[in-house]
Amino acid sequence: MTEIIKPADYKSDLKPVWCPGCGDFGVLAAVTRAFAALELEKHQTAVISGIGCSSRLPAYLDTYGYHGVHGRALPVATGLKLARPDLTVVVTGGDGDMYSIGAGHFIHACRRDVNMTLLVMDNRVYGMTKGQPSPTTGPEVTHPMSTADVRARPFNALATALVAGAGFVARGFSGDPDGLARIITEAIRHPGFAVVEILSPCVVYRPEQKQWKHQVRRDALIPAADLNAALELAMNGDEMATGILWREKRERQAPTPPTARTDVAAIAEAFRV
Question: Which whole-number Å values give the CA distances from 251 to 4, 83, 111, 247, in the listed order?
Answer without folding.
Answer: 29, 22, 18, 12
